[in-house]
Design a protein that fits this description.
elongated; 15% strand; Rossmann fold; alpha/beta; disordered C terminus
Length: 145
């Protein structure tokens, strides 16, 4: 897809799973990739693998439930690449067990990442993302299967 080559993708939860797959695809399409994840070691492994394949990558440790971390992520992306064209809010967490057995601290964590993380990443800060670039905000798959 020529339209993606040279564009910049920011992917939260990018160290593993779907986020890593999206990052690999974005890199394969010629995009510059900004990976964000709360887990530093897997984040660095993924960034290294993408760089080994020839991709331009910036890895940022970030907790998407923390608005200042998301703003710092935005700033790093703009500082490194000058623009952001796509934000993929992929970070998500969950726990197992019966609903009524899940501790309050786990609920706080789940809502912080899954609800407020998406809100911060695409809603509240979208004005910040789009002030310097045209941005597509996505919490869905980027490409059809």
């Amino acid at each position: 897809m020529k339209v993606l080559r040279g564009k910049v993708a920011v992917i939260t939860g990018g160290a593993s799973g779907i986020g890593r797959s999206v990052a690999e695809r974005a890199a394969a399409e010629g995009m510059k990739v900004v990976l964000a994840d709360i887990e530093e070691s897997p984040l660095n492994l993924t960034a290294g693998a993408l760089e080994s394949s020839g991709a331009e990558v910036e890895a940022v440790v970030a907790d998407v439930s923390n608005g200042s971390d998301v703003e710092a992520l935005r700033d790093r992306a703009l500082e490194r690449f000058g623009a952001v064209h796509l934000v993929h809010n992929n970070a998500g967490v969950g726990v197992g067990g019966l609903l009524w057995t899940v501790p309050a601290a786990d609920w706080k964590w789940i809502l912080g990442v899954n609800l407020w993380g998406s809100s911060t990443g695409s809603g509240r800060s979208s004005r910040c993302w789009s002030s310097r670039a045209r941005v597509t905000l996505s919490t869905r798959h980027l490409w059809p299967a």
